[in-house]
Amino acid sequence: MNRWHLLFVAILLLGSSWLWMNRVPVVAAVDVRTPQPAVDHPAPNFTLTTLTNETFTLQEAQGKPIVLNFWATWCGPCQRELPALQAAAERYGDRVLILGVDQGESVEVVQRYVDEKGLTFAIPLDSDFAVSGLYNVRGLPTTYFIDSQGIIRQIWLGEMNSITLAEGVAHLLP
After folding, report:
1. Would 159 be classed as within a structural domain?
2. Sign of the four-CA dihedral 113, 100, 162, 136
3. pLDDT, tens digit (0-9, with 9 covering 90-100), for 11-36
């Protein structure tokens, strides 16, 4: 029986030594969070012109939670979720910034649609798909929930309803 105990201790010591010798160096384990469209990473900065012809820069909006929604007027699921985004913009007021980034459409088309639907939240225009590319938007609608420090906390692909939207915002508020 002693021989088995000795073998067990030897394996334990050798195994522990092997793990210690092959560990990741401390400098390699540093987690650098570079801006990228991923949860727990800083949201990539961008600058776009809004429907009201103002310049919007994401970084300048830091300090406030942001719901960043990519959409288009021709997108059926986008059309169905826009009332929930409008209701959230009204409910949260200045506590949360709701942004509806329109993809690749003309000012006239988007303005007509926004007026028809009575949307009042900010609508930046991504006419050349540069920001959509930066955020790896592969389908519409796509929504990023960004906290007040500019960190992406959740990504929602597809249509949201008011409950999904409220849950996403609840994670952003203190």
Report:
1. yes
2. positive
3. 888 877 777 777 766 555 555 667 88
Q: What is the CATH number of the domain that holds 90?
A: 3.40.30.10
Active site residue 75: yes
Q: Which one from 61, 78, 110, 122 is the annotated catalytic residue?
A: 78
Look at residues 32, 31, 36, 33 and name the one whose alpha carbon lies nearest to residue 144. Answer: 36
Active site residue 72: no
Q: Could you tell me whether strands 97-103 and 124-126 are parallel, antiparallel, or unpaired per DSSP bridges? A: parallel
Predicted model pTM: 0.81
The residue from 75, 84, 131, 169 that is catalytic is: 75
Q: What does the alpha-carbon distance between residue 13 and residue 144 come to, in Å, rounded to a whole number? A: 48
Chain-centre distance for alpha carbon 63: 15
Q: In what order do the strands lie in the sheet with 142-146?
A: 55-57, 47-50, 124-126, 97-103, 66-71, 142-146, 152-157
